[in-house]
Design a protein that fits this description.
alpha/beta; Metallo-beta-lactamase, Chain A
Length: 367
C-alpha cells in the first residue's frame, strides 16, 4: 500500500509539472511538425538538437562538476548585486528617431535599442523584473524602473532575438511590444514561442546561421554563437541561438548575443569586419561554464578577432546570474581593453552612444 501511495504521488507530481509546462504560456511552445521538418535541414541540426561545431561544456555539464556550483550559489556573494538600486538615465520619447544618425541605447543586461540610418531595432528586449517564467521568483532587476516605459516608445521596425533563454526572451515584454514592433527576427525555432504569445506568423522571420534579410535599406545577417537554448526541461537545444550583423550604408554593428569564445569570431571578422560598434557579452561568467559565456578577457580577444572599433560591454548591470561581483565584468573588460589599446564605451543604462562621434561615454559610473 505504501509503495502504491508513493507511486501515485510521484505520478501526480509528474502530471502536474507536465500540465504547468504545457499550459503556462511563459514556457513558450515547440515548433510544429512541419516546422520541425524544415528546421531539421539546418547544417547546425544533428540528431534532433542544434549543436555548435566544437564540444561545449555548459551549465548542465560544467567543468569541475555541478556540486561545486551548487555550493557556491548556496554560499552566495554579498557583492553580487548593487547595495542600492541603479538609477537609469531617462530616455525621452522625443529623443528617439530624431534623425538618421546611428546610436545605441543600453537598457541593461543585453537589451539595446539601436537606431541606425532611420531604422529602429530592439535587440534582446528583456525588460521584465526577473529572468524567470514566474516573475515572483528569481533575482530582481538592479533598477526599479526602465529608461523609458514601453508604452512611451515610438514604433519599432523590428525586434531581433539571439535565443530563447529567459534573460533574453521575456513573455511579458514581448506581449507589450506586440503592438509596437512591425517584425520579429529570430533564430530557427524561436518563432513558435512568439506565435503562442499572439504574434502572427506573417510578422516573424526565422533564420539559420549566415541567412540574410534586407530591411529598410539594412542588411541583417544571423551569425554563429557558442551557446545553447531552452525554456523548460524538455526543449534543450531544440531552437537555435545566434549573433547578429547589422549593416547600413554608413555603419556596421555586431551584436554578440550570448557566446563562449570560439573561432566563429575570427570567421565573422574576416567575412564582415571591421565593425564600427560591437555589443559584446562580458558578464555572468565562470571558468566552469566559460564555453557558453566568455570571460571578460576573452571578450576583448573576440573584439580583436572581429576588428571592432568601439565596444559596449553588455550582459551585465541588470541581473545576478553568476557568483562574481556585479561590477567585475566591466572592471575586468575595461582593464583588458586598456592593455590592448581598444576603445570601450561604458554608458549608463539609458545613455545613448553615438556611432562615429569623437567622444563616447566612458565614466566609471558604477563605482
Amino acid at each position: 500500500m505504501t509503495f502504491i501511495l508513493i507511486a501515485a504521488v510521484i505520478l501526480a507530481l509528474i502530471a502536474a509539472v507536465y500540465f504547468v509546462m504545457t499550459l503556462y504560456p511563459a514556457f513558450g511552445a515547440r515548433a510544429s511538425k512541419a516546422e520541425r521538418a524544415a528546421i531539421s535541414r539546418s547544417p547546425q541540426y544533428q540528431q534532433g538538437k542544434f549543436v555548435y561545431p566544437f564540444p561545449v561544456a555548459g551549465i548542465e555539464n560544467p567543468r569541475g562538476g555541478g556540486l561545486s556550483i551548487l555550493k557556491d550559489f548556496v554560499k552566495g556573494n554579498p557583492n553580487s548585486r548593487p547595495k542600492t538600486p541603479l538609477l537609469p538615465q531617462p530616455l525621452l520619447t522625443g529623443s528617439i528617431q530624431q534623425n538618421r544618425e546611428t546610436k545605441a541605447t543600453w537598457f541593461g543586461h543585453s537589451a539595446v535599442l539601436l537606431e541606425i540610418e532611420g531604422v529602429t531595432l530592439f535587440l534582446d528586449p528583456m525588460l521584465g523584473r526577473t529572468p524567470s517564467p514566474f516573475p515572483a521568483i528569481g533575482g530582481k532587476r538592479y533598477s526599479r524602473q526602465l529608461p523609458i516605459e514601453l508604452a512611451d516608445l515610438p514604433p519599432i521596425d523590428a525586434v531581433l532575438l539571439s535565443h530563447d533563454h529567459y534573460d533574453h526572451l521575456d513573455y511579458g515584454t514581448i506581449r507589450q511590444l506586440q503592438q509596437k514592433a512591425s517584425m520579429f527576427i529570430v533564430p530557427l525555432g524561436v518563432g513558435a514561442h512568439l506565435k503562442r504569445w499572439g504574434i502572427s506568423g506573417e510578422r516573424i522571420r526565422e533564420f539559420d546561421w549566415w541567412d540574410e534579410i534586407t530591411l529598410a535599406g539594412l542588411t541583417l545577417t544571423s551569425a554563429p554563437a557558442r551557446h545553447f537554448s531552452g525554456r523548460s526541461l524538455l526543449d534543450r537545444n531544440t531552437t537555435l541561438w545566434c549573433s547578429w550583423i547589422i549593416q547600413g550604408a554608413n555603419a556596421k554593428i555586431f551584436f554578440s548575443g550570448d557566446s563562449g569564445y570560439g573561432p566563429h569570431f575570427a570567421e565573422i571578422g574576416q567575412k564582415y569586419g571591421p565593425f564600427d560598434l560591437t555589443l559584446m557579452e562580458c558578464g555572468q561568467y565562470d571558468l566552469r561554464w566559460s564555453d557558453i559565456h566568455m570571460m571578460p578577457e576573452q571578450t576583448v580577444q573576440a573584439q580583436i578577432d572581429l576588428q571592432g572599433k568601439l565596444m559596449i560591454p553588455i550582459h551585465w548591470g541588470a541581473f545576478t546570474l553568476a557568483m562574481h561581483d556585479w561590477t567585475d565584468p566591466v572592471e575586468r573588460v575595461l582593464r583588458a581593453a586598456k592593455e590592448h589599446g581598444l576603445r570601450l564605451a561604458t554608458p549608463r543604462i539609458g545613455e545613448p552612444v553615438h556611432v562615429g562621434a569623437e567622444t563616447y561615454p566612458s565614466s566609471p559610473w558604477w563605482r
